[in-house]
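We include the entry.

. . .
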Amino acid sequence: MSVKSDTPFVPLNIAVLTVSDTRAYADDTSGQLLVSRLLEAGHTLGARNLLKDDLYKIRAQVAHWIAEDEIQVVLITGGTGFTGRDSTPEAVSCLLDKQVDGFGELFRAISILDIGTSTVQSRALAGLANGTLVCCLPGSTGACRTAWEGILAEQLDARHRPCNFVAHLKPVKACESRG
């Protein structure tokens, strides 16, 4: 990572949504990994929720967070596969003002090292909506780790050069955990 030393770290207010028909908070290892990583990086957990894979409930939750002044990033884990119930990309894509095409492409490129050609079945995506970065990740803990370490840690850090997403996010006066 290229870091600009005279640029200060900017803690972001991040919401985490787990989409799963089978998990509860007690066994939500993917959501918990994202929460742990964002806190370790110095960011703030702005909100957290766990929903069944229901297109309209997912869309409503994400739309609510996009509309909130305090939430700058939404990380969603789950619902990006090809089963009949997987609907996260369909729930989220219509909310985006701009899609970050390279996010899914890069995620699949780096995950091929771990899961081989199975990476083609990932429908990971990201985009910007109302100054909020929304990232849809697969539901596996390994995929969330790959996305955090390979993309998110740098792109959510204002010091990362040559560019990152922090400058594109809505400003928040003070980040306070409401986790």
Notes: DSSP finds five helices and eight strands in the chain. The chain has one domain: 2-168. The first helix runs from residue 29 to 40.
